Prior knowledge:
Elements: H1 3-33, H2 37-70, H3 78-107, H4 117-146
Helix pairs in contact: 1-2, 1-4, 2-3, 3-4
Amino acid sequence: MHFNTVSQRILLTFWVGGLWAIGYVAVPVLFNMVFDRFVAGGIAGRLFGIMSYIGLVCGTLLLTSVIYQAGHEWRRSWQVWVLVTMLLIVAIGEFMLQPMMQALKAATPQGFVPGSAEAGRFGLLHGVSSLLYLVTSLLGLVLVVFGLERRAAE
């Protein structure tokens, strides 16, 4: 097994495994065990933020590696486009959606009043963020299942 392949597998495992472990194990357990949803949400937000930066670093390294391996044919590699999509989603979540959600939370330090405009806006942003996280997780799973190397038939 080539060193580059091993490095890619480690990076992919760290990123995608972290996505699944945090998003679908740790955070649900956190909300189940911590009765103050505001506190649980703060901790969950921090965990998701850490995963975003892990994703940006691992994803950039993986993308660079896959483009290098594909050479002049990199545009025809579906793996490149999956990684680009994942990186864009992570960047949108971390640098657009999360600041908007944080601003809403900062404006209402006692929490959202149910049915308020702020609660509705936060719910919408949270829903979009959750959907993007799911898409990223599933795209990552596709890379885990099918791998990062181009096949000879591609």
